[in-house]
Amino acid sequence: MIRLFRSFFALVLVGCAFLAATASRAEPAWPTRPVKFILPFGPGAGVDITARLLADKLKEKWGQPVVVENRPGGDAFIAITSVINAHDDHVLLFAPASAFTAHHYLHDKVPYNINDLVPVARVTNTLIGVAVPATLGVSTIKDLVAKLRAEPGKLNYASVTGANDLLFAAFLKTEKLNMVKVPYKDPVTAVTDLAEGRIQGYVAAYAIVRPRVQAGKVKVLALTNKARAASLPDIPTAAEAGFPSLTFDGLTGLLGPRNMPLALRERIAADIKGVLADPAAAQRLTVTGQVVNPGTPQEFAAAIEDQMTTVKHIGKTLGIKPSP
Q: What is the DSSP letter of 201?
């Protein structure tokens, strides 16, 4: 009986070893070297603040450095193509979905295939504000509309990247307003000019304009988000202010190369959710104008699809046919 028990126990050990080896082959060690987050914006943007917070926390969990690399310009093409061309699951895109969901409505030719990227993790919903210089003397979107009608073609707005530009252009068309578009390479530079009154309008992440708001240089008239932000209770949504054409939810997350295994992406998403479960980390992002909302690859994919549907509607409003 004892001999039989020993034989059975030995078989169990062999089976466990086999299952462990199989699991190891199915889920290889990751990361095995430094991880890089590529961002389409410069330092100071909301996505930059979020990426750096996560990088600091994840390097402890992963046992590897997590490097944040800013590659602004080219309407996010530089950052996106650098991630796709790397073909490396240690090089990931950390970006607002609006940086790419509108590309086919903004350009005749897009130098990448969005299917070469796969969602890894939803991280936050960005609060997006309609901002003006404090010196402009307007307090509401209704005031801004009245001023634009009184001075057609005399005021400028910043155009930096992505769907926010289309959103504001659709608003101007819906309200039959004339405002001059001024292109910028980097959102932080645009905010500097906004604060100095060189431009008079900018739709951007609240995190970018927040320091200028606190300094009394910039005023946020409304948020484009569907729901009023608990962290900014005094700022109405554009829909509440009577301008539903300015409704658009911000969405930020992490994307990886096409062949990145789902199991790995789910593991990264779970690690990010764990980091953001820390109240101190969540509070740090909340005060910058973000809603902490970590999600799985599947949830991020669904949210991106929803934003693309909104962008498609905006494109129809503007009469723009998407490029191939």
A: B
| Domain ranges across the chain | 35-127+250-313, 128-246
Residue 130 CB coordination number (10 Å):
27
* Nearest-angstrom CA–CA distance, 132 and 153: 16
- Kindly list the distances between the CA atom of residue 194 and the CA atoms of 4, 52, 166, in Å, as whole numbers in the listed order: 82, 26, 19
Element (DSSP H or E) covering residue 54: helix 46-62
Q: What is the pTM of this model?
A: 0.81
Question: Which architecture does CATH list for 35-127+250-313?
Answer: 3-Layer(aba) Sandwich (3.40)
21-73: per-residue pLDDT in tens?
444 445 568 999 999 999 998 887 788 999 999 999 999 999 999 999 999 88
**Token pair in block for residue 86:** 């790397």
Q: Distance of CA 94 to CAs 68, 91, 199, 222, Å?
A: 9, 10, 28, 26
Q: Do domains 35-127+250-313 and 128-246 have the same CATH topology?
A: yes
What is the CATH code for 128-246? Answer: 3.40.190.10
* CB burial of residue 30 (10 Å; 0-12, 13-18, 19+): middle
Spatial contact of 286 and 292, defined as CB atoms under 8 Å apart: yes
For 273-292, letters b (16+ CB in 10 Å) and e give bebbeeeebbeebbebbbbb
